[in-house]
Request: fold
Amino acid sequence: MTKTQEVDDFEQVIEKVVFDESELDEIKIAIKNFSKGTITPKQLKQKILLCRARIVRDVSNFLSFCIERVQNNSRTHGHQEIIDSNQTEFIVNKLQKELTDRNELLEIVAEKINELVLETKKDTGI
Reply:
């Protein structure tokens, strides 16, 4: 397998972890319930934080698996050790930045939803 294919595969796995369809559906339902007023802002925030915690846990487990695999391969390919280490570090840094960016986006979305709900409640006199 080529390095480009490995990176693509790696990114696909991370994308599946971050954008878990069933979890996204749960968040959509929570947002809908929040806008209807059936759950509190705290409950919505807790739901989002639980999802983010699951993402961090799953990405961490996947990275541990990848690092262990790279280390095992490096032992069998002595001269590849430095190259693999640098690539792993690059990938980990890239993923951390992507997670940070996505977490910031989720926070912005939650704040916007909260503002819209507050405006709606204000306009309707609730």
